[in-house]
Structures are given as structure tokens and as C-alpha cells.
Amino acid sequence: MRAGYEAQPLGKARPNYLLRTLCEEMGFLGNRENYYESQNSFLSDVLDRRTGLPIMLSLVCMAVGRRLGAEVDGIGFPNHFMARYRDSEGEWLLDAFNGQLLLPETVSTYLSSIFGQSIQLSAAAFRPMTAALVAQRILNNLRNVYLAEQNYVMATRTLDFSLALTPLNPLPWQERALLHLELQEFEPASRDLRRYFFLTGQLGLALGIEEEQVELEQILDDQERQLFDTFNRIEEMRTRLN
Fold first, then answer.
1. In terms of CB atoms within 10 Å, which end of the chain has fewer, N or C?
2. Euclidean distance between CA atoms 198 and 171, whole angstroms
3. Chain mean position to CA 18
């Protein structure tokens, strides 16, 4: 593959060769029929089956392109992911899921046609994603699949990894706490909700500290009140079991 790639002139020919080789000769393609299978988000399965989600196929493009010495990054557009190839002659977007090579100025129209709605992209949309952000996006995909399957054990597991990446983000703590509750795992549910309240500045209210009780009760919305009620229910269950 390297010889064929290096035989191409700089410019469009090289990313086109990379995409054609992966999609046509090696058989990598998007899994449209079973888009929401969890295997589409595991790189080992994607390599074995040569099919997967846009982000995973883009990772294959990135890995192969970089081995060839090319500058290839990952770009996370709304609802879609592509690899970006750059050289001294310009830049191109590789949509490995659909086997398409695009110029940056055509991406908005292209995505609009795919999703059937107008999609306008700012310059910020073309910034390459860091490895951590790519990993988080993959984990979000997996979490959504497992939640749809009501596989709360695996959904909880994906949140374990998400929290390793973003431990100061309160929302995954809340979500994992509610999944632990669904699984009747009251101790970890309590720990996670306490961490959520700590990160949102509400731990004092959750624990019933008088000084904070009066001030914070006045600013709670319905969703927050429901979350505090859930926490109290978890604490009651912990007391019964202990």
C-alpha cells in the first residue's frame, strides 16, 4: 500500500487512494443495516468485520494514513465523523462510512443532504478532536446503545470510563448513580450522587446542613427536587439494608 500511495502526486490523489484502498480493496464500509450494534464501536470488532460506525472507520483511516506519513486528523461534525487529510496542496474530508472524498466547503451541503435538514458549520466545527474527545464520543455511542437495550450493567461500565476522562463533569456521576439505583446497587448510587452534589455545590443541602438548607431550597427547580428525593430514597434503602 505504501508504494501505491507514494506513487500518487500530492493533492487529491493521495487521500483518494487511501480511501479507495480501505473501502474498495480492503472492504471497509459503514454498517447501515445494524447501525446500533455495540460491535460497531469496538475497534477489534471493526477490524475483524470491516464494518462499523463513522467514527471507528475514521480511526482506521487516521491510523493507516499516519503510518504512511500523512497528516490525518479526526473531525467530529454534528451526528457524523470524518477524517481530515492535509498536505501542501490543500485538505480533504474522508467519509469512510459512505466512501466519499469531500472538499471542506462542500461538507455543510453534503451533511444536509444525508440528514435531510439544513446543517450550517462554523470554522470551529473543523477543529480536530483530541484523543480524549474521540474516546468520549465513542463511549457516548456505546452508552446510548446499552441504554436502548436496557443493558444497565454495560451502560454503567461505559460511564466508568467516561468519568476516568472527565472526573469533574457532574452529569456522568448523576447518570451512573441512577443506573446503580436501577440495578439496586444502593451504596455506589449514594456515593455517585454525593459526588454529583459536591461538584454542583449542593452537598450541604443533600446532607441536611441547616445553613445551606434555607438558601438552596429557594433555588431548586423541579428536576433538582426530584433528584434530592431520589437521594433520600437511596439513603433510606441503605439504612434498611445495613
1. C
2. 12
3. 25
- Does the predicted TM-score (pTM) go above 0.85? yes
CA distances from 74 to 4, 89, 96, 128 (A): 23, 19, 12, 5
Q: What is the pLDDT of residue 210?
A: 47
Give the sheet arrangement for strand 90-95, strand by strand.
Answer: 71-77, 80-87, 90-95, 100-102
Model pLDDT for residues 65-92, shown as the tens digit of each residue? 999 999 999 999 999 999 999 999 999 9
Candidates 3.40.1170.60, 1.25.40.10, 1.10.3720.10, 3.40.47.40; CATH matching 131-241: 1.25.40.10
Q: How confident is the model at residue 219 (pLDDT cuts 50, 70, 90)?
A: low
Read off the pLDDT of residues 100-119 as tens digits, 9 standing for 90 and up: 999 999 999 999 999 999 99
Instruction: Pick one of 3.40.50.12780, 3.30.1380.10, 3.10.620.30, 3.40.50.720 as the CATH number of 2-126.
Output: 3.10.620.30
The partner residues of 93 in beta bridges, in order of sequence, read 84, 102
149 contacts: CB under 8 Å, gap ≥ 6: 38
